[in-house]
Specification:
Elements: H1 11-23, E1 31-43, E2 46-49, E3 60-70, H2 71-83, H3 94-102, H4 105-110, E4 112-117, E5 122-128, E6 131-138, H5 142-153, H6 157-167, E7 180-184, E8 191-195, H7 196-220, E9 231-234, H8 243-250, E10 256-258, H9 277-289, H10 300-321
Helix pairs in contact: 3-9, 5-6, 5-7, 7-8
The structure holds adenosine-5'-triphosphate (ATP) and magnesium ion (MG).
């Protein structure tokens, strides 16, 4: 857009440039925008300007990264959260929240790939020049590893989760592969000895898939080169020993580190596991936005009424109904 004020860019020009970039986003009717993140600005054809305010130019355009989501899914998530008595003020892309907790400022300036290996999805985001440049998700993550172990060893999902956390590694040669792990088969409850190396092989196949799909996603976005600046792994699924080494090996020996929450003062030790990174990031996001961070919105008397109702249903009603006619 043309700079309205003549040639010196004012804050109104910046706002208008962002607005006009947003207006040009064509979105299907069943999707809603959750973030409009400004990557940088182009002034008089020159890209990559971070702070255009006060510069002299005839033309200013904003380059934005828009994150949208299915409107129905957003409503369902909000309804599920509000059912617990917590009021939803805003919905935030996981990677955006996680980045606040785990990335150092110079890391997101230089360029970094953030991989959050969760339960159902592996969330990807690229940060460059201090802003998000790409986001995506892969529908394979930690829970798929657990399901594979359950199916292939014929054990329950619960036991597979325990086996994964206790004995799982990303490479078979990280332990003595012949070491037996005792599991009980579903149905027969028979105790079976499984070599630890087999568990590692099952895990390895899925982890390789996760990293290969990541490469594909970044290549399709034309941003695979960012990987050379480094990868930060986070989420519960990044905790298996050897995951870091595997990521580096598959992604061309790039530097990889595990991202734990930082910038949380005395709480740091308690939330150090990468499993808490998104949670801490959400708190930091709300704090940055100056959100109302009071505890659940459920009024005290509503909780009392609910307690009284459940006491009535559980204890009083069955006893009283025994004396009523017809019983
Ligand atoms: N110590 C561990 N070793 C290996 N895997 C683990 C460990 N702890 C948790 N996980 C796995 O991490 C996954 C959950 O991670 P996380 O809590 O980050 O997911 P989430 O944020 O709830 O899910 P999503 O991001 O998909 O919505 C599960 O698959 C779980 O089995
Ligand atoms: Mg997660």
């Amino acid at each position: 857009m043309r700079v309205a004020s003549g040639d010196e860019i004012t804050s109104e020009d910046v706002e208008q440039a962002i607005q006009s970039a947003c207006d040009n986003v064509a979105l299907p009717h069943d999707r809603e925008i959750i973030h409009t993140l400004v990557r940088d600005f182009t002034i008089d054809g020159q890209r990559g300007v971070k702070r255009p305010l006060g510069m002299h130019a005839a033309r200013l355009d904003a380059n934005i990264h828009v994150v949208s989501a299915a409107a129905g899914a957003l409503r369902n998530v909000a309804a599920a959260v509000e059912e617990t008595g917590v009021q939803v003020q805003k919905q935030v892309l996981e990677s955006v929240a996680t980045s606040l907790a785990v990335l150092a400022e110079d890391e997101s300036d230089l360029g970094v790939v953030l991989m959050d290996i969760g339960g159902g999805t592996t969330d990807l985001a690229i940060f460059a020049n201090g802003a998000i440049a790409h986001s995506g998700a892969i529908l394979v993550a930690g829970n798929h590893i657990t399901s594979d172990i359950a199916k292939l060893l014929r054990i329950s999902y619960k036991q597979a989760e325990e086996v994964k956390k206790k004995f799982g590694t990303a490479f078979a040669d990280m332990t003595n592969g012949d070491d037996p792990v005792l599991v009980s088969e579903i149905g027969t409850h028979e105790q079976v000895r499984v070599p630890r190396g087999l568990i590692a092989d099952i895990i390895q196949a899925r982890l390789v898939e996760i990293f290969q799909l990541t490469i594909k996603n970044l290549e399709q976005a034309g941003m695979y080169d960012t990987v050379t600046s480094g990868v930060v792994l986070t989420g519960g699924g990044s905790q298996l020993p050897g995951t870091l080494e595997m990521a580096s090996e598959i992604m061309g020996n790039t530097p990889v580190r595990i991202g734990s929450a930082r910038g949380v003062g005395r709480m740091a030790n308690r939330v150090a596991s990468p499993i808490f990174a998104t949670g801490v990031g959400l708190v930091l996001y709300a704090a940055n936005e100056g959100a109302d961070a009071r505890p659940p919105a459920t009024p005290y008397y509503l909780e009392l009424v609910e307690k009284a109702r459940s006491w009535w249903r559980k204890y009083a009603q069955p006893r009283i109904s025994a004396y009523l006619p017809g019983n």
